[in-house]
Amino acid sequence: MPTPSMEDYIEQIYNLIEEKGYARVSDIAEALSVHPSSVTKMVQKLDKDEYLVYEKYRGLVLTAKGKKIGKRLVYRHELLEQLLRVIGVKEENIYQDVEGIEHHLSWDAIDRIGDLVQFFEEDASRIEALKVIQQKNEEE
Ligand SMILES: [Mn+2]
Q1: Which CATH number goes with the domain that contains 100?
Q2: What assembly does the database describe for this protein (predicted)?
Q3: 104 has binding-site annotation
Q4: What are 79-118's pLDDT values in tens digits?
């Protein structure tokens, strides 16, 4: 199992490759707000653990294992953003809140949150009912 830090790297590498077709050390460093030397170290570890293949002058590619987990990590991040959005969390808080919780939930909890998001999205009256409660709570 990757550590939370490894998960952050795999997630960002997956995103970069999806968006640009490649992931450079400098782009990863920028996306994660870390020093390029930290990226190089982590990329070597991810290579050793077979999440990716790193060649100094040719860049890096995710292995099948790296792609599979990367896809799940990106899905998890997006699902948690959807959850916070649907329950009315302010847009300005959503990204950082998700970064704070995403590594600490079981896949069981993620699947159940998927059900909950679906529960709200299937019927707008459910979101409205939640808003009524929130308005009451705000008034108290
Ligand atoms: Mn994330």
Answers
A1: 1.10.60.10
A2: Homodimer.
A3: no
A4: 999 999 999 999 999 999 999 999 999 999 999 999 999 9
